[in-house]
Amino acid sequence: MDQEKRSGFQLKWPWNWVVCGVFVAAAGYFIGYLWSTLLAALFLWLEVTREPTEHILNELFERKEDFAALKAPIFMVLKSPEDLENPTLHRTLEALPAIHCCLDDFGDNYRALAENVGRKPGKLPLAVVLENGNQCVYSDAGYNVGLADILWRILQ
Prior knowledge:
Shape: globular
Number of domains: 1
CATH architecture: 3-Layer(aba) Sandwich
CATH class: Alpha Beta
Oligomer: single chain
Number of helices: 6
Strand content: 15-25%
Order of helices and strands: HEHHEHEHEEH
């Protein structure tokens, strides 16, 4: 049997898998590097239907063009999937479709985080801006007029 001669460099098993694994690891490291050095991220723990949360959602909606232009990701942490049915939250998410929603029970992890960023657990909404992947550069909790303006200035 004549075998076709293939041109170019070819790796044989298991080296092809090793090279593929190294490439995937390098790509993951690069993405992690970009996230940790170039981006800040905003995390908002929300208590939908309650006034301080409704207030920040209205402020975000009012500045939707500014927040849509940000490169920093925004994560809204909710207690239940039913929170997505809240009209104010729904309107804000429609205006800012890049926002990521997450679920949390607001238990021990939330309480530890609130304390670590210098805020009283249970006082919502909790806003945390992280840079370099895990460094808190700003936090606020409860009612604060102009919070969206402050967050936008930090994130731009």
